[in-house]
Amino acid sequence: MSNAKKRLSLTIDAELDRVITDRAKEIGIPKSALVTFATSLFLNQLRAEEMLSGDTNAIYQVIRKDYELLTSVDNLSK
After folding, report:
1. Do 30 and 24 touch, CB atoms closer than 8 A?
2. Domain count of the chain?
3. How confident is the model over 23-53, as pLDDT tens digits?
4. Is 1 a domain residue?
5. Is residue 56 included in any domain, yes or no?
6. Which residue among 3, 37, 64, 71 is least packed, with the fewest CB closer than 10 Å?
């Protein structure tokens, strides 16, 4: 990965933010460092799974369905 830095703004669930905050404090690192590492780890594992299974679309379908479910629930509550 490149060393160039880009800023990313995220909106996350309050409970997830609490978990990230607690873990970052426990480890002694900034929340941004934990999120960056976790994202990189997830993407590397995803890439490895794609290579092993030969299916590059299955996990993306799961992610997309989860996103659609979350956004539809959010829309219902408005």
Report:
1. yes
2. 1
3. 999 999 999 999 999 999 999 998 888 888 7
4. no
5. yes
6. 3
